[in-house]
Amino acid sequence: MAAIAELPFPKSKKGMQAFLGALNYYNRFIQNMAVYGAVLYQLKDDDFGH
What we know:
Layout: H1 2-5, H2 13-26, H3 33-48
């Protein structure tokens, strides 16, 4: 989680999509990653539009 937390927060919708795509790699290593991912996907929609 520390490596993920140190990543800069994306500033665009495309950047957020790339960030979320990179998180898919960690999905198998982090318990309950779907919970964290759901929050980030909601941020993508709220902050960057559909």
